[in-house]
Write a structure and sequence with these properties.
This protein is an alpha+beta fold. It binds 2-acetamido-2-deoxy-beta-D-glucopyranose (2 copies). One 2-acetamido-2-deoxy-beta-D-glucopyranose binds next to helix 9.
Length: 347
């Protein structure tokens, strides 16, 4: 027996021993540490709360990892005593990238000029109240859920049409984003792949109006346009107005009259996991989401816009966000003052 083979035999023995040890630990897993147990309990409760199930144990584990990292982030932000808080809402098992690719859908391609039906912005002479909430005036429908379809633009535009229709006729009718997803599909708007609100207004003007949500219900995926239902008009508009950009005073004057559509940057993790309070960012200025501003006010001296989102009632404050108003950056927090508009109903 030479030295080499003796070393090899010792190594073999070591390998066998390690394997035996592996088998032992596999057979009787070590108890998870206290932190893991608490986390796992919390995760299981969260899964139940949100009715989440996954296809495999692997995905369960992967989602658990993402959930834990989101929780750490939530604790980190909430510890900073900011004007808003985050929470482990239904998006807490998604990475921020997944969230962005699933729930955002405001897309403007290159330079686009509004059509001639556009009216010019003219506030006129009227008193602008220090706060207003169109929900209290009965002009806002319930919170909707776009699901995993990038149709935010349709919800944003229709929210504004629902409101002006209620203000002018007294009837609050929930309108059909599915009709826009199916029928307003072309060069500018792309159903579940994104679109812009002003093009949705233009569609409604050409189509003579839009059907109700009841007649043309939401499916959350691209379908063929049903032209028969699309002719059952539940509300119509005569034009729309682009609000001057970088001017939150102009926005306020408009919201004093009616809810408005705004484009924002909703891609931040803070936005994904927002719970309550006046949201001051972080967020960028790359407009990628369409929402509805249904009012404004002030909390302890801090101005905010009341934002109606289309991510269900589980996100934010029952589906709503208070977004900071009066930022020193003229583009507004999350770019809220960069592109906003509202429909006109002249009869
Ligand atoms: C948290 O912020 C509020 C208002 O911004 C302030 O009044 C309060 O003292 C702060 N609390 C802590 C613990 O920093
Ligand atoms: C912003 O809009 C208001 C209301 O329309 C207007 O009076 C004001 O001059 C505008 N400010 C700027 C900087 O354009």
């Amino acid at each position: 027996m030479n030295i080499t083979s003796s070393v090899t035999r010792n190594n073999m023995l070591a390998i066998v021993l390690v394997c035996v040890l592996c088998v032992c630990t596999d057979a009787r897993p070590e108890k998870p540490t206290g932190e893991v147990t608490v986390m796992e309990k919390r995760y299981k409760t969260w899964l139940k709360q949100h009715g989440k199930t996954y296809n495999s144990k692997d995905e369960w584990n992967m989602r658990f990892g993402i959930y834990q990292s989101n929780l750490k982030f939530i604790e980190f932000v909430n510890a900073q005593n900011l004007s808003y808080k985050l929470t482990d809402n239904e998006f807490a098992d998604m990475t921020n990238f997944e969230f962005q690719t699933t729930y955002l859908g405001y897309k403007r391609k290159g330079h686009w000029l509004p059509q001639n039906q556009q009216h010019s912005y003219n506030v006129g002479n009227y008193a602008i109240p220090s706060s207003i909430d169109w929900r209290k005036k009965g002009a806002v429908t319930r919170i909707k859920n776009q699901d995993s379809c990038g149709s935010c633009w349709a919800f944003s535009a229709l929210g504004a049409v629902e409101a002006i229709n209620q203000i002018k006729t007294g009837n609050l009718v929930s309108l059909s984003p599915q009709e826009l997803v199916d029928c307003n599909f072309g060069l500018d708007n792309h159903g579940c792949s994104g679109g812009i609100m002003e093009k949705a207004y233009e569609f409604m003007m050409l189509n003579g109006g839009i059907s109700s949500d009841e007649d043309y219900p939401y499916k959350g995926r691209q379908g063929l346009c049903n032209p028969i239902i699309a002719r059952k008009i539940a509300a119509s508009i005569t034009g729309y107005v682009r609000i001057p950009e970088r001017n939150e005073t102009a926005m306020q004057a408009a919201v004093a009259r009616q809810p408005i559509s705004v484009a924002i940057d909703a891609s931040a993790s803070e936005f994904q996991l927002y719970a309550d309070g006046v949201f001051t960012g972080s967020c960028g200025k790359k407009l990628n989401h369409g929402v509805l501003v249904v009012g404004y006010g002030k909390d302890k001296g801090v101005g905010y816009w009341i934002v109606k989102n289309s991510w269900g009632t589980g996100w934010g404050n029952k589906g709503y966000m208070k977004l900071h108003r009066g930022s020193s950056d003229k583009r507004g927090v999350c770019g809220v003052a960069m592109e906003s508009s509202y429909p006109v109903k002249d009869f």
